[in-house]
């Protein structure tokens, strides 16, 4: 199940140990940055002097250390989101001092002293390290560079990974090697920091030629593909720099249906340009749609009515005015019984997501699952005796099977993956499904996923394809009528 549009609003609060170092009248005098202040317990307050003419930042900081589970330093920062890099020429002012004093380029989740963070740190003795605390209050680790006392340093965040680059005098930035994975919630903080590594003194460093580069949002490219069950070879049918999802293979084998931008499109199996299908008022169709067993009708899940919550509708395969089937929302279609009389779907009722069934003509819905946790993705077996679905009731998302009345619920898969959206083949031999790595929650987009194939009678699970995808790849039935091929959507993120 998935809404057409979801907006998350995230709020960050400053840590109790943060001491603001600027007044509102001074905030415009920090160039690229918004504010500055001490992080953690520092004996001597730090400061920053911004030279507008030279575009330099002279940052003075105290503090015992930036390491282990907590930090103490002076920070000059701004709040940001997305992928970015920050680079600067860094030079300590004054000889001597603790050899472990640090001047850093810092990406930080919050202003708490024990916040998750990543930094590129130049030490007093010239050691340059990519340092990080993966989780709040966790230990600090580092990747030490083999370049000592570089002239210029850069730290870059790309997705969930952080990288460092360094440059000696007269050279261009080059990768320092090594990276690590850290998940930061947007917005987060980026800026300059100095730690004296001695709570009784203040150390100063000058940051010049400071650059913050926001990476542009990548463009999504979608590709409708088919994979041959026998050979595992794949064929591209259609690709476009746009977001489309969830192919259905027509019952006569001649075309696909998929959703894009809230509309349903029809595309010949041989390829070409897709044509929009007339769905009347339903212009916010999500990726839960399909074709009736006799090929005469299409079922859609649309969010254009009822406070933009998903409802299930049926209309002619050639297009027309949708007829409402479910009265309660949200409801997300997934399966059509082989006799053409019943629809199976996932629905949220009173905070629980379960599997329901309802007559195609409408009427009272019947709840088929009651286990705690999410049940989703119901699809009927070729002979109409069973419904396959995915459930997290045993701790991870696995494939299950039950009778069409909800009886005899039986677990089918039990492995180290999170398995979603089982689709029985028309010939009754196979169950195709989508697998995420075990640490992935839900069925998000833009993940490394695997299309897998399990024999209906049990046996070794096969890999059909490894791809970048997830949400939208295979949410709905997409088998060819002869069971020889499976259609799916893969994705790619491209720099604009």
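^ Assign residues to that structure.
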């Amino acid at each position: 199940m998935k809404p057409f549009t979801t907006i998350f609003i995230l709020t960050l609060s400053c840590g109790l140990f943060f001491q603001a170092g600027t007044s509102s009248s001074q905030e415009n005098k920090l160039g690229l940055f918004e504010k500055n202040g001490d992080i953690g317990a520092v004996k001597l307050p730090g400061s920053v002097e911004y030279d507008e003419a030279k575009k330099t930042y002279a940052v003075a900081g105290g503090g015992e250390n930036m390491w282990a589970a907590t930090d103490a330093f002076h920070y000059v920062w701004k709040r940001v989101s997305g992928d970015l890099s920050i680079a600067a020429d860094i030079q300590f002012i004054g000889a001597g001092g603790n050899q472990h004093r640090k001047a850093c380029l810092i990406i930080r989740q919050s202003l708490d002293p024990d916040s998750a963070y990543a930094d590129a740190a130049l030490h007093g003795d010239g050691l340059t390290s990519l340092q990080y605390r993966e989780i709040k209050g966790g230990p600090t680790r580092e990747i030490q560079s083999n370049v000592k006392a570089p002239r210029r340093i850069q730290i870059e965040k790309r997705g969930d990974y952080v990288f460092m680059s360094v440059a000696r005098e007269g050279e261009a930035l080059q990768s320092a090697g090594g990276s690590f994975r850290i998940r930061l919630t947007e917005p987060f903080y980026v800026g300059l920091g100095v730690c004296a590594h001695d709570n009784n003194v203040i150390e100063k460093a000058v940051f010049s030629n400071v650059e913050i580069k926001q990476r542009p949002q990548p463009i999504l490219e979608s590709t409708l593909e088919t994979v041959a069950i026998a050979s595992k070879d794949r064929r591209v049918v259609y690709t476009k720099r746009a977001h489309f999802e969830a192919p259905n293979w027509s019952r006569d084998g001649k075309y696909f249906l998929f959703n894009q931008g809230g509309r349903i499109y029809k595309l010949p199996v041989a390829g070409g340009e897709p044509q929009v299908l007339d769905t009347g008022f339903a212009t916010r169709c999500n990726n839960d749609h399909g074709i009736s067993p006799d090929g005469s009708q299409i079922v859609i899940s649309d969010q254009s009515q009822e406070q933009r919550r998903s409802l299930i509708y049926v209309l002619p395969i050639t297009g027309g005015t949708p007829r409402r089937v479910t009265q309660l929302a949200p409801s997300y279609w997934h399966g059509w019984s082989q006799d053409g009389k019943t629809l199976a779907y996932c629905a949220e009722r009173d905070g629980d997501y379960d599997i329901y069934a309802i007559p195609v003509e409408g009427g009272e819905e019947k709840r088929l699952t009651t286990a705690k946790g999410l049940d989703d993705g119901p699809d009927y077996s070729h002979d109409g005796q069973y419904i396959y679905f995915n459930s997290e009731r045993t701790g991870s998302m696995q494939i299950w099977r039950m009778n069409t009345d909800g009886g005899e619920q039986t677990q089918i898969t039990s492995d180290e993956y999170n398995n979603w959206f089982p689709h029985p083949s028309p010939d009754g031999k196979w169950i195709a499904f989508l697998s995420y790595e075990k640490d992935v929650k839900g069925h998000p987009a833009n993940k490394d996923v695997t299309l897998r194939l399990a024999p209906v009678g049990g046996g070794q699970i096969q890999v059909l394809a490894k791809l970048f995808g997830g949400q939208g790849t295979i949410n709905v039935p997409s088998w060819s009528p002869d069971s020889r091929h499976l259609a799916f959507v893969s994705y790619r993120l491209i720099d604009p």
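The domain at 19-214 is CATH 2.60.120.200 (Jelly Rolls).
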